Amino acid sequence: MKPMLAWIKAHLLVVISTLVVVIVLPVGYVFSSKWNESIKTKRAAEVKADVDKLAQKVSYAIPALDPSETAVTQSDLPNAVRTEFFKKHRESVLQQADGVVARAVAFNQRDHRPLVEGLFPDAKGEALQTLPFELADRLIGKDGRPSAYQDLLDRVRAGGPRPADKLAPILHDVSTREREAILGQNANRQLSPEESARITEKVVSRRVGEYQARAREITFYAGMDVFAVDNARGMSLLRVKPKMLPVLEDCFGWQADFWMFSDVLQAVAAANTDSGGRPQSVDQGAVKRVVRVLLKDTPYARVERPQTTTEDSSSAAPVAANPNAEIKPDFDRSITGRWSGPENGMYDLRHASVELVVDSAMIPRLFDAFAQTNFMTITDIDLGEVDSWSELERGYYYGDAPVVKATIEVEAVWLRSWMQPWMPKEIRSRLGIPEEKPAEGEAAPAGDAQKEDDK
Questions:
Q1: Can you give the pTM of this predicted structure?
Q2: Quick one: which of 30, 50, 191, 375 is 20 to 30 A from 430 by CA?
Q3: CB atoms within 10 A of CB 269
Q4: In a shared domain, residues 357 and 417
Q5: What is the CATH number of the domain that holds 154?
Q6: Residue 436 — very low, low, confident or very high, per pLDDT cuts 50/70/90?
Q7: Is 9 contained in some domain?
Q8: What are the residues whose beta carbons fall under 8 Å from the beta carbon of 368, sequence distance 6 or more?
Q9: Residues 352, 295: contact at Cβ < 8 Å?
């Protein structure tokens, strides 16, 4: 035993190294096995995650422009060819949608522009003191210049019957010539009943002929007296130049009413065109006479609110509407499902009641004409009899076709996208239209800056 211990002491380094090798090898094997397993598990998880990503499906979609159609959708593994295909067609559809929107706005706006440039939306200084009166002069007429309403009637080839002051001399001349032809040199004798009847027949025939000639000169009967506004709500039709300076809200209400009257008369004129778009005369067209166009609401006119000592929440401006929000039909509000209000940031509705004398067989053409002129829908129609002989005595010649009196209710949609830039601030606030804020780093409009300074 002693020799062994002596040898160990003499070779202690060798013994310790041998023991280390004997102990470390199995321990290292155990630890390396566990470490290797950990690395394999981690790498396997990473590979699985990458594989899952590669196998993850994506959704492809091409929206539908028509709500009645179903959008094209597909869920599948990513694919460069498929991705490029859907991207190309989606961009094409979105471009078409932008084009449809632009065409819809252009169709709705038509040729509507303010009658007086620089007045809307916020004339200031000298312009604010003069341009409102200039608008009134355009609507009423001044210094021999016809009113904008008369210009509108002329554009659609509308007019009244042959004026009595022009017809009377013609009929007197006919009567005189016939009397002279019958009496000859014996001018003092009395006419016989038969001779008087013959002169009367000639005069009546010429009178009807003048009425017929007038009917061929115009497209339909209408005069300045056809324009009317229900003044139970808002402003009435401007007839006399105001003595006090009109506010911008009133001016915009007058302008908007003029646009609405224009749309209605343009639709009536469209009903009196042939297949080639050429205007027809009264005796040929669908509409013979416009008796009255009554605007039943004025959503853009100023609203007077009673003065209160305490703050009334009902008079506060409505919450700004989202112009991009979906406007769902509500058939409890109207037969068309369309409605306007603070929650509708896309469009406003206008309503008019139009009294017409129309060819009973051509009423469908009238419906089509309103739809083709603008976003207008005839929501109701009431028909009544017309005494054609009584109308003829007043100078209205309607031709040989049977006619009826039609009272139609018209609903018009006006997109805010083209009207909003001209709306005064007070109207935008009342309708819930959000204020346009300047972009970051962009200065606020001068008017707003001035108001801040005033504060």
A1: 0.75
A2: 375
A3: 23
A4: yes
A5: 3.30.70.60
A6: low
A7: no
A8: 271
A9: yes
